[in-house]
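dumping this here so i dont lose it
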């Protein structure tokens, strides 16, 4: 491996037919350090009763005892989005944010409230936790004690409504997806905060939605797609942003310049200058030419340097595991691959339906 810094990878998994196994601790993070890969496990609270019984390490809004219910279908196990500050790692799960000590990756606590549900991307900015409630196309801002700071819902016309009280009527932590596939109008994933502006990837539109919290206005950051894409995660590196598409594409976007493909590639000067342009995309495809197979999924991403990326591939339902791969996109060459296999990493592998890599982050 070629890392100067430690890199962690979050992953989640699910079981066939809601299999119930003893205990609530499950593997959910891999750490890559030099030539070593280490697996870490953490506790997960599944039902309202789990939260009440384990309130000693829960910070935030506990479910009410009078509303404890049994659920026929429980959500996945494991972590999704990752964020960090100087001391801690914040890992999203189905119904909370787990706080992990950055120094030794030990468990600290779980932050939770009614709107920490089906978390995908996550960011931490000025002691606030930013997540989304995909079911309701809502950006959620929580305090470190678990209390709600504010939340912003975005409708089909990009109108933004702050603190819609109707959403609080449900405890969304214990609502499962009604069907497979993306939820909401946009299916928000990656989140990045820049002051009053929050960037959200919309998988259903394959673009970025920028929300200004001060003006309560939303706008589109569109890309000049030349191919079909389903954008998932992203990471900024200097003047570029690298996005993953679930079919194995890496989309490289110039953050500042808007040029057409012809202007960028052919360096042509056009007679008319008043055309509107979206952000130009440079593509890199993970496929048989570098991975020796076509990936079945692609999600997390981080940058080693301008030309070297690390990402997660495979892990769809019925697969035997997922991989973390590092690729030199300039040379179209795989530098290394770590295969995380179900049968070698779980106590009861025959019951597991899938395991999928989610986010990658240098620590």
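and the seq i came up w/
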């Amino acid at each position: 491996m070629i890392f100067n810094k430690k890199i962690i990878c979050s992953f989640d998994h699910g079981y066939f037919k809601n299999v119930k196994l003893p205990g609530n601790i499950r593997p959910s993070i891999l750490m890559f350090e030099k030539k070593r890969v280490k697996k870490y496990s953490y506790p997960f609270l599944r039902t309202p009763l789990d939260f009440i019984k384990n309130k000693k390490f829960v910070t935030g809004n506990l479910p009410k005892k009078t509303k404890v219910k049994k659920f026929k279908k429980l959500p996945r196990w494991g972590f999704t989005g990752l964020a960090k500050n100087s001391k801690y790692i914040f890992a999203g799960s189905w119904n909370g944010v787990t706080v992990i000590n950055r120094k030794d990756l030990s468990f600290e606590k779980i932050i939770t409230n009614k709107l920490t549900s089906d978390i995908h991307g996550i960011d931490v900015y000025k002691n606030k936790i930013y997540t989304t409630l995909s079911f309701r196309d809502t950006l959620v801002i929580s305090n470190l004690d678990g209390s709600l700071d504010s939340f912003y819902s975005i409708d089909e016309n990009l109108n933004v409504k702050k603190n819609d009280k109707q959403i609080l009527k449900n405890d969304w932590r214990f609502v499962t997806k009604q069907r497979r596939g993306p939820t909401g109008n946009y299916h928000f994933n990656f989140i990045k905060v820049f002051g009053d502006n929050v960037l959200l990837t919309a998988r259903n539109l394959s673009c970025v939605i920028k929300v200004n919290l001060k003006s309560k206005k939303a706008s589109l950051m569109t890309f000049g797609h030349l191919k079909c894409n389903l954008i998932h995660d992203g990471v900024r590196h200097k003047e570029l942003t690298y996005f993953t598409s679930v079919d194995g594409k890496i989309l490289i976007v110039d953050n500042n310049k808007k040029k057409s493909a012809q202007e960028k590639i052919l360096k042509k000067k056009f007679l008319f200058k008043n055309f509107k342009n979206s952000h130009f995309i440079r593509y890199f495809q993970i496929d048989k030419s570098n991975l020796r197979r076509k990936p079945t999924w692609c999600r997390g991403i981080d940058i080693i340097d301008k030309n070297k990326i690390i990402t997660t591939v495979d892990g769809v339902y019925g697969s035997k595991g997922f991989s973390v791969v590092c690729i030199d996109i300039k040379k179209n060459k795989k530098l290394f691959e770590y295969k995380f296999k179900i049968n070698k990493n779980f106590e009861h592998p025959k019951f597991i339906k899938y395991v999928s890599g989610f986010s990658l982050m240098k620590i």
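The longest strand covers residues 352-362.
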